[in-house]
Amino acid sequence: MADETLYDRLGGIYGIAGAVDVLVDRLFANAAVNANEAVHAHHGVPANAPGYKFLVTAWSVEAAGGPKCYPGMDMTKAHETMNVTPPQFDAVKMEIAATLNFLGVPAVEHTEFMDIIESYRSQVVTAVAA
């Protein structure tokens, strides 16, 4: 068990896809996240929800040490014109943490995944808070 990847410990594709399904619905409903028009358009609310959920699932699978399956842009390229502020990043991060808590993800895996999210801050945040 000690050599299992985070991907395995999160339940593999099914566990991650289930978590992303909950997460993306939360993101779409979060006013702080969607206050940035570029973020709102990026999400494609609600028309592109299935595609967005697929991309977030695939990205999460790879980030957690699962198989290579993410067909999207790297995080810098994907967010370079979105002008994401630190508080907007924190709002997404809070929804991720709340989703992991809601789903009962154990503390070790919760912390490990949140550390991965935090490691992308510099690639996603491109603007200062207003």
Characterization of this structure:
- With 130 residues, the protein is an all-alpha fold.
- It has a single domain, classed as Globins (Globin-like), CATH 1.10.490.10.
- It is 67% helix and 0% strand.
- It has 9 helices and no strands.
- The protein has helices at residues 6-9, 12-29, 31-34, 37-43, 49-63, 75-79, 86-102, 107-119, 121-124.
- Helix 2 (12-29) packs across helix 7.
- The longest helix is centred in the N-terminal third of the chain and has 18 residues, at 12-29.
- The model has no long low-confidence stretch (mean pLDDT 91).
How would you summarize the topology of this molecule?
Elements: H1 6-9, H2 12-29, H3 31-34, H4 37-43, H5 49-63, H6 75-79, H7 86-102, H8 107-119, H9 121-124
Oligomer status: single chain
Largest sheet: number of strands, sense, barrel closure = none
The CATH H-level homologous superfamily: Globins
CATH level-1 class? Mainly Alpha
Features:
130 residues; mainly alpha; Globin-like; 0% strand; globular
Q: How is this structure best summarized?
A:
Helices cover 67% and strands 0% of the residues.
